[in-house]
Amino acid sequence: MHIPDGFLTYSVCAITYVGAFIFWIFAFRRAKQVLSDRQVPLMATLTAMFFAAQMMNYPIIGGTTAHLLGGPILAITLGPYAGLISMTIILLIQALLFGDGGITTLGANVWNMGVIGVFIPYLVYLAAVKATRNSRGMFAGAFFGAFIGDLLAAVFAGLELGFSVIFPYSVAIAVTAMALPHSLIGVGEGIVTVAIIRFLLSVRPDLLQLPKVAPNWLGESPSVLPKVGGS
Amino acid sequence: MIRDRRIILVGMVVSIIFVVAGCAWLSFSSEKLDEIAEHFGAQESPIWTPPIPDYEIPGLEGNIVVNIALGIFFTLVVLGVVLMVGKGLRAGSKKEA
Questions:
Q1: Are the beta carbons of A43 and B54 separated by less than 8 Å?
Q2: Could you report the per-residue pLDDT of A40-66, keeping only the tens digit for each?
Q3: Across the interface, do B46 and A5 touch by the CB < 8 Å criterion?
Q4: Tell me, what CATH number does A33's domain have?
Q5: Fewer CB near the terminus (10 Å): N or C of chain A?
């Protein structure tokens, strides 16, 4: 999903950079307030883990491949602001050192994988936890949040490509072409996200305390840490 | 502190498994985006020459051992960078308070 230099027109690059920049400002300001000392090692570990995970390309359909994003678990455990900072660090290192994703398209890649791929799973997870207040809702929210986050990140990548004149095909075709394969990787992302949450619940349940990480504009968050297996 | 070390240790073991699997078995990349671009004859036009293009050291392409070592090294670099950024954010927060 990493868009390289040359695939997007400059206007699309500029718009996505502006969008990403606005979120960066909020992320750095808010992450300072909501990130706790105990979350820093987890933030570093998960960021490194998903940097490594993005090196693995899974065969999907029609001979194509895709990789996990990592945004959902970063969002759920660290909150969306620290999650965005983590994804930005991954994307910046990938672009500068490995040429995986472009420099002119960094704003678009951050928007797709760091903003959409982080904030959407967080919102879905939060809504599910608020609505159910039990572990089933927690796991369902994590799974569907990850799935929808990956899918929408691909949809946005398709929109950006569709609105760029370099590819002579319609927005609808571009979005469909990107969304279909990434819906499959979204299922994998959901499974991995739930697995990590289950692991953290067993060893460090304190790291899943949403009230510590929820942004103010979402309102007061419920105290979520249902017993695993409870309903 | 011990529990933090356990999290980091488990995370690094999983990361190494990802790197080894990524370099040895799951390194073939043909994303839909690349496929579409190839179909329309679109080409990348990089404005920056990365020192390690496509996660491989120039001249040592295809060497799995080197690629695994590189993957593990940069995973540790990312770990270190994010630890520093995280601690920097916390320090900034304490200063503001």
A1: no
A2: 998 999 999 999 888 877 666 666 677
A3: yes
A4: 1.10.1760.20
A5: C
Q: A25 is in which domain, residue-wise?
A: 10-218
Burial B80-92 (b: 16+ CB within 10 A, else e): ebbbebbeebbee
Q: Cβ–Cβ contacts within 10 Å for residue A42, how many? A: 22
Which chain B residue is nearest to residue A101, measuring alpha carbons?
B46
What burial letters (b/e) apply to B28-39, b meaning 16+ CB within 10 Å?
ebbbbbbebbee
CA–CA dist A83, A67 (Å, integer): 18
Q: Which of A159, A198, A181, A204 is nearest to A41 (CA)?
A: A204
In a mutagenesis test of the B interface, which of A30, A56, A81, A90 is the best target, namely the one with the most B β-carbons within 10 Å?
A56
Cβ pair B47:A103 closer than 8 A: yes
Instruction: Check B30 against A39: CB less than 8 A apart.
Output: no
CB pairs under 8 A between A and B: 195
pLDDT in tens, B19-48: 888 777 776 666 677 777 777 777 778 888
Q: How many domains does chain A have?
A: 1
**Strands (DSSP E) along A97-217, which ranges?**
none
**Would you state the structure tokens that stand for residue A138, as one six-digit string?**
């927690």
Q: How confident is the model at residue A104 (pLDDT cuts 50, 70, 90)?
A: very high
A10, A55, A67, A202: best to mutate for the B interface, most B CBs within 10 A: A55
Residues β-bridged to residue A58 = A66
Domain coverage including residue B62: 2-96
Task: Give me the number of domains chain B comprises.
Answer: 1
Nearest CB partner across the interface for B78, out of A2, A47, A167: A47
The residue in chain B having the minimum alpha-carbon distance to the alpha carbon of residue A46 is B11
ipTM, two decimals, is 0.87
Structure tokens, A99:
């040429």
Distance between B63 CA and the closest CA of chain A, angstroms: 15
Between these two residues, A164 and A103, which has the higher pLDDT value?
A103
Residues of chain B in contact with residue A114, where contact means CB-CB under 8 angstroms, are none
